[in-house]
Design goal:
The structure is a single chain. With about 60 residues, the protein is mainly α. The protein has a domain of about 35 residues: 2-Layer Sandwich (Erythroid Transcription Factor GATA-1, Chain A). About 20% of the residues lie in helices and about 0% in strands. It is rod-shaped, with a radius of gyration of 20 Å. The structure holds zinc ion.
Length: about 60
């Protein structure tokens, strides 16, 4: 049996996946449909509601 995500050999611990990552990827797909989890992110840093910097026009005198 091989991992349905990446095709590698399945680990018993993470059946039917090869790793925790692949299990999470599959779970994410299942939960969100077509949404793909970025491969490099392991833990979500929480909600960051950063306000984007606005370009302030130069002040005139
Ligand atoms: Zn895998």
């Amino acid at each position: 049996m091989s991992c349905p995500i990446c095709g590698r050999e399945t680990m018993h611990r993470y059946r039917p996946f090869c790793s925790k990552r692949c299990a999470q990827i599959d779970l994410g797909r299942w939960l969100t449909g077509a949404y793909a989890i970025p491969a490099e992110e392991e833990d979500a840093p929480g909600e960051e509601d950063a306000v984007p910097d606005r370009e302030t026009p130069p002040t005139r005198h």
